Amino acid sequence: MTFLHKHVSADDHVLIPGCGLSLLGEQMAADGYKSLLAVDYSETCIQTMQARGAQEHQNNVTYSLMDVTALQLEVTGQLHGCYCGQSHLGLLDELRRLAGPSQKHADGVCTCP
């Protein structure tokens, strides 16, 4: 998590695309991140993580059913993304689209193999 602390502030809005059953959102919340959106296209994964989040009383992680190549988000200000897994060009294109023409790139996009 030290890597993230260097590049993403705990006050930033953080997108965790393709979250699956990853504990990254929970770990980031425990580390003080306040606004986390974890998305996945698997309804089973999202339902499982929502139930787990409710059990853990986590209010700062939102789990949402969404395709990472067609995100249904309104982005204002700076966009931060964190993607763990294999590179996904569709996701990177989508993050660039969300960042909009006012930003040359989606700041803080991290790809971890």
What would you say this structure looks like, in words?
- With 113 residues, this protein is of the alpha/beta class.
- The chain has 4 helices and 5 strands; from the N terminus they run αβαβαββαβ.
- The chain has helices at residues 2-7, 24-30, 43-55, 89-99, and strands at residues 13-17, 35-40, 61-65, 80-84, 110-112.
- It is globular and about 40 Å long.
- The model is unreliable at 104-113 (pLDDT under 50).
Secondary structure layout plus pairing:
Blueprint (H helix, E strand, L loop, with lengths): L1 H6 L5 E5 L6 H7 L4 E6 L2 H13 L5 E5 L14 E5 L4 H11 L10 E3 L1
Give the overall silhouette. Answer: globular
- Count of distinct strands: 5
**Tally of DSSP helical segments:** 4
Average per-residue pLDDT, rounded, comes to: 75
Per DSSP, what share of the residues sits in E-state strands of 2 or more residues?
15-25%
* Structure classification: alpha/beta
Round the Cα radius of gyration to an integer and report it: 13 Å
Percent helix, as a range, is 25-40%
Largest sheet: 5 strands, parallel
Biggest sheet strand order reads 3-2-1-4-5
For the record, give the distance between the C-alpha atoms at the N and C termini, rounded to a whole number: 15 Å
Please mark out the parts with pLDDT under 50 across 5 or more consecutive residues, or reply none.
104-113
Task: Summarize the model shown.
With 113 residues, this protein is α/β, with parallel strands linked by helices. 33% of the residues lie in helices and 21% in strands.
